Amino acid sequence: REHFSIRQSDRRWILEGQRLLRHYLIVRTPFYDKDLVEFMLAVPPGLRFEEHLYRTAFRRAFPRLAKVPLEKTGLPLAPGMRELRVRVGRRLRWWLRGAGLRFIAPPRRRPYADYNGWLRTALRPWVEEMLLGPQTRLRDLFRPQAVQELVAEQMAGANHARRLGVLLTLELWLRQLP
């Protein structure tokens, strides 16, 4: 699996973006150092599983940063009671599912940021100006009525943050064109 990841997906997806940007940015890939990769492939799989070695080294080198919650899990790298509770809960659910009790739902992951709330409150004037204002360039690509309905539904409480994010990105890009 690691060989496939290094030779195929990383090379095709991650490194391709860096190749496109290297004329504009200084790109560094410290984790693709040949000696480091060979060393890590020689490390026993138990230490590589779930980035155990990386997390342990990070906690020792940067103890204050290790207390910052991760985007993916909402938990810090530094061990604490909350992390212990979550890990015990995961193990318990895994054990119960193995015993045939599959009705126990996993906890819902907390989103990293409340994009829906931001779009409705602090960013509302900006969203409306960008997507509904007189200088909107999306009118040539999308029906203005459809965009207006999408924005109105979002402001009324619907969850269209992802769609609006795509439209906002496209609008910002279009405004940079001559």
Compile the SSE list and pairings.
Blueprint: H1 2-21, H2 34-42, H3 45-48, H4 52-61, H5 81-98, H6 115-120, H7 124-132, H8 144-155, H9 161-176
Helix pairs in contact: 7-8
Which key features would you list for this structure?
mainly alpha; 0% strand
Could you characterize the architecture of this molecule?
By secondary structure, the chain is mainly alpha-helical. The protein folds into two domains: 2-74, no CATH class; 115-176, no CATH class. It has nine helices and no strands. It has helices at residues 2-21, 34-42, 45-48, 52-61, 81-98, 115-120, 124-132, 144-155, 161-176. Helix 7 packs antiparallel against helix 8. The longest helix is centred in the first third of the chain and has 20 residues, at 2-21. The chain is extended.
Provide a concise account of the structure shown.
The protein has 178 residues and is mostly helical. It is 58% helix and 0% strand.
Number of helices: 9
Helical residue percent? 55-70%
Name the poorly predicted regions. none
Number of strands: 0
SS strand fraction: under 5%
Mean pLDDT comes to 80
Rg over alpha carbons = 23 Å
Distance between the termini: 46 Å
Structural class: mainly alpha
What profile does the largest beta sheet have? none
What is the helix/strand order? HHHHHHHHH
How many domain units? 2
- What is the 3D shape? extended
